[in-house]
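Summary for the lay section of the report: proteins are chains of building blocks that fold into shapes. Here we show the chain for CSRP3 protein and then a coded description of the shape we predicted for it.
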Amino acid sequence: MPNWGGGAKCGACEKTVYHAEEIQCNGRSFHKTCFLCMACRKALDSTTVAAHESEIYCKTCYGRKYGPKGVGFGQGAGCLSTDTGDHLGLNLQQGSPKPARPSTPTNPSKFAKMMVDVDKCPRCGKSVYAAEKIMGGGKPWHKTCFRCAICGKSLESTNVTDKDGELYCKVCYAKNFGPKGIGFGGLTQVEKKE
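The coded shape description reads as follows.
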């Protein structure tokens, strides 16, 4: 029988879907507002939808419900979840209880050892990681902390000087620690002794 004056029926609400509001997935039509994950009700699009028979899910819920089970599966890389899957009708706590893990690793990884030995910035005292490290005066500095201690000017390798563990621009260093007299340190006249 022809469908007079309307479009296909929505796969979620069973009402008529007109062309302007239609999203098609797995051979079925949906309203844009009905194109939601059947488990968590998150809005879906073509990059986040995962279809199973006549059901649509976000990729996370689909993985939890239909993906492989066990430690490290269905949660995403490096993700720790306390989700029990109850809203999906799953019982992820099946089987024997897992033995408790020791609170301190018996064989720390190279990465863990590296994280302990992170350099500290002399200016702010916080950790300096490789992506933000600038060396000056034999010490690691943050890019934002690599400034003159007196005037606050941002420093570069061409205009930095150090004294007693602190950084200065060449101008401030010359004014404060350079030679004194005519032509040095800003003096223009020789003072007469009386």
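Put simply, here is one thing we learned. Residues 130 and 161 are 22 Å apart (CA to CA).
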